[in-house]
Amino acid sequence: MATWNELADVIGTDPKFSSLDGEQVDAIVDLLALVMQVDNRIGVLEGVEFEQLVNSLPFVANKAARVEQQVERARDAIQAGQVDGFIAAAAKALPAELAESVFQMTAALAHADLKVHSAEDSVLLAIASALGIDGKRARALIDAEP
Question: pTM for this structure?
Fold first, then answer.
């Protein structure tokens, strides 16, 4: 029997992400956690947007604990200067047909605090490249008002 949290999660899951496996969900959360932290400031609006985006993904076991670990891993990658490798590993796990949807999630998160900071912009462009999104298309999505 499903728990209330599992049922609520199924209802809240964005249909385009419903077939993702745990590794793919983790990859998206990795990218979101990276974008959220790369400018070294996490505002209230950004935190709320992060939570909403994570909640749009399918349920995975121990979701809260996993997300917390992923936030820590992203922070560690930033501090160690290993952002490119972190992005490459996450992008590799994602299906090509979801690349733009995932990128739009990361761009929306960067916009959540009402300003895309230069560190966020650089990371967004690196994410777009790793996901195989054309630079002009990525720029248009970054510059678009949410």
Answer: 0.88
